[in-house]
Model the fold of this input.
Amino acid sequence: MADIAVVGPGAIGCTVLAWLAQDARHRLAVVARSQLDGIEVQTPDGLLLAAPQRLSQAVDLRGHDWVLVTTKAYDSALVASSLAGLAGSETKLAILQNGVEHLARFEAHFPPEQLLPVMVDIPAARTAPGRVTQHRRGRMCVPQGALGARFAELFAHTAIDVSQPSDFKTEVWKKLCVNAAGAFSAVLQRPAVIARHPGVAVLMGQLISEAIAVGRAEGAVIDDSLVASIVEGCRANPAGINSMHADRVAGRAMEIDARNGVVVRLGRKHGITTPTNEMVVALLEASLLEVD
Done:
């Protein structure tokens, strides 16, 4: 049995909670600012329900075996600070976020042995507070080791596949390449199928190629064939709306830095030019400007 708390009841947080709730071994809680009338997730396998205990502040997390952080990457500084009281305790923090800087967002407050980065690939959309639609079977990756194995065991009786690849860095960079490509959907506010436009396909390929180059400089092993694979996946997905696109349409903050800004920042570190990623970062940031 495990005591598990989720911080961030968005699409991923609710989906993870719903699946974990199907295992009676777990005691579940969620940190939420507002009251949740239970959790309902429509999955490819049917409707899942969960009724986790609601906690309103991080101090209530003491004694939990696991805290799963499923907030957006841009909220990490605030979340890390609020959870700092758990540093040095037996509680383990699993960071289920986009990007490649999972540990960097929390290492100022926690010792490394307490943190577990998690690559998440669970296509899901929040339709209302506590209400989510999961579009296909989910998967997650964690680094090899005892802590990763313990995390995987939490999901052993769920339909979320958790693996421990030998090269975790490569896996998170491959996922970042997918996320980076989605920036054009957020810019144009159109689904992934915009990749059927020849010009957009070329630009999308440039975004991905830049991310691959930077990822290789960071130590990831990525084949150039990933470019065509991602573009073709977008072309074949007429209903595909990524989370940054959905956030812009809804008027929410976007993970610009975690998806494309990081390519630009780390590119500069390695002396790699990333003009296409710089362009989409500028366009998305400009879309947030208040104009008098």
Observations:
- The mean pLDDT is 95.
- The first strand starts at residue 2 and ends at 7.
- The longest helix spans residues 198-217.
